[in-house]
Fold:
Amino acid sequence: MDKVTGNVKENPNLLHPVPTPNLPPDKKPECVDFPKYSIIGRRGIGSAGRQINLLTNHFKVSVNVPDAVFYQYSVSITSEDKRAVEGKGIGRKLIDKLCQTYSSELAGKKFAYDGEKTLYTVGPLPQNKLEFTVVLEDSFAMRESESLGGRESPNGSTKRSKRSFQSKTFQVEISYAAKVPLKSIFLGLKGLDKDNNAQDALRVLDIVLRQTAAKCGCLLVRQSFFHDDSRNFTDVGGGVAGVKGFHASFRSTQGGLSLNMDVSTTMILTPGPVRDFLLANQNVKEPRYIDWAKAKKMLKNLRVKTRHSNMEYKIVGLSEKPCNQQFFPMKLRNRKGLDDEEQTVDITVSEYFMKHRGIELTYSAYLPCLDVGKPKRPNYLPLELCSLVSLQRYTKALSSMQRASLVEKSRQKPPERIRTLVDALRNYCYDEDPVLAECGISLEKQLIHIKGRVLESPKLKVGNGNDCIPRNGRWNYNQRTLLQPSKIERWVIVNFSARCDTSRLSREFIDCGRNKGVQIECPLALIEEDSQVRRESPVRRVERMFGQIREKLSRPPNLILCVLAERKNSDIYGPWKKICLSDFGVVTQCICPFKINDQYLTNVLLKVNSKLGGINSLLAIEHSSSVPIIKDTPTMILGMDVSHGSPGRSDMPSIAAVVGSLSWPLISRYRASVRTQSPKVEMIDSLFKPLADGVDDGIIRELLLDFYQSSSGHKPTQIIVFRDGVSESQFNQVLNIELEQIVRAYQNLGETNIPKFTVIVAQKNHHTKLFQTNSPENVPPGTVVDSMIVHPRNYDFYMCAQAGMIGTSRPAHYHVLIDEIGFSADGLQNLVHSLSYVYQRSTTAISIVAPIYYAHLAAKQMSQFMKFEDLSETSSGQESITSAPPVPELPRLHENVCSSMFFC
Structure:
């Protein structure tokens, strides 16, 4: 194979253009019954590679009372006025008090309570239905059940404080719901759990862990727990801190029941004075520079504690005027008017605190007050008397600077992480929990020893027929050329007001290209943005720049190198990508060169060459058309991913992206198709999308047609699907919803024979880590584990393809849902490993297969085409309840670039 490409015109195998398989207008595709797929079990384990001894962050669990049975009860809590109490915090407080007060009526049973509507006991309670009256005697009762504020005085007057410490009565009803035998976990390990209770039993054990953490005052985030200890806080700027804690969950594995424990981090608002938080959050030095509209939005629903009364409140807003001008009606004690109503007098917040609390306000007298009252009864507090309560989660997306700071400060080398986990397990004393003790559950205090294998790095083919053998998951192009270099003839450099010598940049880029085998002509133009345009909107700046390009060039260039002033989150990036890729169909590469050297320019060149249809390197077995199983049968590889809006933005559409391989028998060339869908929906709904006229406008049709055209007219008879980002509870949906759509799209093209499928889910967001037993370094690239800590029956394995240079490596967890193609365990693991080496953007093995990484990049890039910030403001809350606003569609890519690797 002398020349390999995904471009139909340049492919020597295609002597004639391949016609698109269209159906006659009067013929409808024959639809066969959709096959029913079910998740397969493990078919064996691999043996390829050298053996390696490993540790993993699982701790062996022993159960001495396997016949124990959990009894599940429903919990209903009502207040004195018969209203249901939904507050999360108050539930645990009430159940704790109930256990203390009614221990004998409960036969001394200990509860495992989820904090909401369910609790469990080991063995039954005396009766199936029990009702109790529980009295809470501290201020907690009022704060949780009546919300905060509601008094006329701005600070919680004596009257309010007295009332808040009065007792409050609740009715708690406990009703039997179900039995959950502990032995179902062990039946599940053997595949004998017919009632599928194993997951329920594991959930009960996890609830016990959460309850233990809750009693220690931890912040709970699913199965992760965070202590209020400032030693665990890491400031990342903007009034935000990372807090280090631990994840802990019970897992059924091939080696038995284990506790998976890992270091975990979540984001919180930095506790302390509200003023300090606002200054840090808005990056200003003095309160007079605070943007109070932003502050109001940021502070809403946050909890504060007051210095003068030591009470907690929830912020609902800000006062319209500063403290020294904000009046409120203060009731006069023992003073009634003619109509027997209490008399009031208007007084400013500042004056109130001076006369009635003996506190003279300083800087906050001239700032707005915090409103902690109710909509029609505000309750004002001066800023300087309030501090943010600790452990309040920050759920918005971090800036690039914050993220970099967090990674830098929180990473741990393997030995440090092992030490942290072992110490934590000993300190938590889970064995001593009364519910776990009743089940006879005990934990080993050392990490589990397991066996792994290290797969050999695949050989690569680069330019001039040379071989390249990666070392430790890395390679380079020093003294090497690209396998199939593109030719860059018509190109320009545009500079959006960045400090960059574009003339030097062009010279060094041309030199770098020459060394790597890429022929680059002199640029047609070096275009600098007009300094007067910098203050205009990003869209306008982009349009003006394109106007300059059109003035200087008679026809569009093949490549535009775009220099941006900001490395991340540039406002220019989205509009620029849209106008290039959607409106004009021109390949573009954005750069922000702080330091121009050969390594930097080589990385840029790798991206540009891929976008222009070149190939940087191939697997040696791919270059010789000898990829096992794939070489003899037309095989298409799909990578599928859904990216959701940033945390805290539930109104932003999700972006679904699918990449499909081109030019079979290659497995290194891909094209992408991207669509929007409803917010937070994980299943892709546009794989097959028939319009009113019967034409399919879905993603899969696009990818199938391009595969057919780029593969000498071959139709895929095997399809390998890599799906990212779904949890175990959604595996069946992948088969029943997404796979069905793929089959429908295939049938819609007039096909009756359904391809064979292999469907693999890849997970990165899990908590299993691997460590070498005899080395402080990360596990070597190519490490695979398919025994002991894997699922007891299903087909899964862990693979760490990348070389971990900093922190502790996280392996990818691959789940094989179906495998009609019939790979051996070694064959499939070698394919997955090889697909970590075909990523054209870099010279390192990546942590997850390239098709998934490409899908993620395509979704991320095209999401920048549209800005969704105004969606929530265009539809009222009332409208969103009855009918969700329509999801805006993404602009389609121009035909010149739609089949390119624009996402590289």
